[in-house]
Amino acid sequence: MKKLLIIIFITFPLYANNAIPEFNLDYKVEKEINKELSIEEKLRLSLSKKNLSDTLIDYLLAQARHETGLYTNSLTKKHNNIFARLHSPKDTLSMGGFAWAEGRKGYAHYKSIDSAAISQIAYLGRMGYSMKWNNTKEFVWELKRRRYFTAPVERYWWAVELHYRNIQKEKQLKQPS
Asked: How crowded is residue 67: how many other Cβ atoms within 10 Å of its Cβ?
């Protein structure tokens, strides 16, 4: 009996003090890292995993900034909907169309920013978008032709263009001199 107690006493504290806290620590660290990323950093990371060009990613970031009011609207905060997408049964990543915006119900709810980003790329592919725009004007005109938005095209384009220019300036500031 003493041998059994000694074995339990020696083995259990080593297991309890080493293995479990390490697992919990890793989980907490991972959770903190994800918490510290901004919405735009999460979005850029998700889009970059899809082997998209930097230019295309910047167009999509500019569009997301415009659609979300710099990630401050309720669709973004409550529903991870960063492209103001309506729910569609074809959108397998949308968890339903119960989100409200601009007095209208039917906007998609996404589990995460990553899901919303992947959904947007899938949508553009499914709808046959060219994905090879030379500038923001071409990008926005294709969105308008396909009825992605209802605002006047000039207003939408100018907003996306301003966000795109800011993204380019931010990237230049981050580059080492």
From this structure: 23
Report pTM. Answer: 0.77
pLDDT value at residue 81: 95
CA dihedral 29, 32, 36, 38 (to 10 degrees): 110
Report which of 92, 75, 96 is spatially closest to residue 84, judged by C-alpha positions.
75
CA distance 65 to 70: 4
Judged against a pLDDT cut of 50, whether residue 5 lies above it is answered with: no
Q: Can you state the angle between helices 153-174 and 54-68, rounded to 10 degrees?
A: 120
Contact 144, 129 (CB under 8 A): no
CB atoms under 10 Å from CB of 154, counted, come to 11
At 13, the pLDDT band (50, 70, 90 cuts) reads very low
The whole-angstrom separation of Cα 173 and Cα 177 is: 9
- For residue 82, count other CB atoms closer than 10 A to its CB: 28
Rounded distance between C-alpha atoms, residue 24 and residue 30, angstroms? 10
3-state secondary structure of 109: coil
Residue 11 has pLDDT above 60, yes or no: no
CA–CA dist 125, 25 (Å, integer): 40
**81, two tokens:** 């909907």
Q: Quick one: average pLDDT of 75-102?
A: 90
Say how far residue 109 (Cα) sits from the centre of its chain. Answer: 13
